[in-house]
Amino acid sequence: MQIVHVDMDNVLVDFPWGVEQLSEEIKKEYEGELDEISGFFSDLPPVDGAINGFRELSHHYDTYILSTAPWGNPSAWTDKLLWVQKHLPEVGHKRLTLTHHKNLTHGDYLIDDRAANGAAEFKGEHIQFGSEPYKDWESVLSYLLP
């Protein structure tokens, strides 16, 4: 069975929505380092179509969640686990990998919105979420599903 890794931030988790909810004071205090805000990751909503999309992929692929957690924010590591337990309890169980080197993971596909943290060097196919032709979950699923 082929392996698919799915990034969390901006692919499964709506990071921009969370930024919009922050006060101007917090945005200014953490300017350029918003992912360093303690507790920020746990309450973010899913990206439209992400939960159903991940579940659907899980019927056809060996599917994992691959994400980077900020080094200076230990709560983010726990928050990301709690997010998966809340939103993908059955299909995400023990399928979360947190790494700063995504290129070291093995797989056929990586769905990620950026080329950072080793995504550009991933040995399989990098599907850049949010770009043409993979602008949303519907387009990703139409590409990957039979």
UniProtKB/TrEMBL annotation:
Signal peptide: none annotated. InterPro entries: 5'(3')-deoxyribonucleotidase (IPR010708), HAD-like_sf (IPR036412), HAD_sf (IPR023214). Gene3D superfamilies: HAD superfamily/HAD-like. It holds the Pfam family NT5C. GO terms for molecular function: 5'-nucleotidase activity. It comes from the Bacteria. GO terms for biological process: pyrimidine deoxyribonucleotide catabolic process. Belongs to the 5'(3')-deoxyribonucleotidase family. This is 5' nucleotidase, deoxy (Pyrimidine), type C protein (NT5C). It comes from Fodinibius salinus.
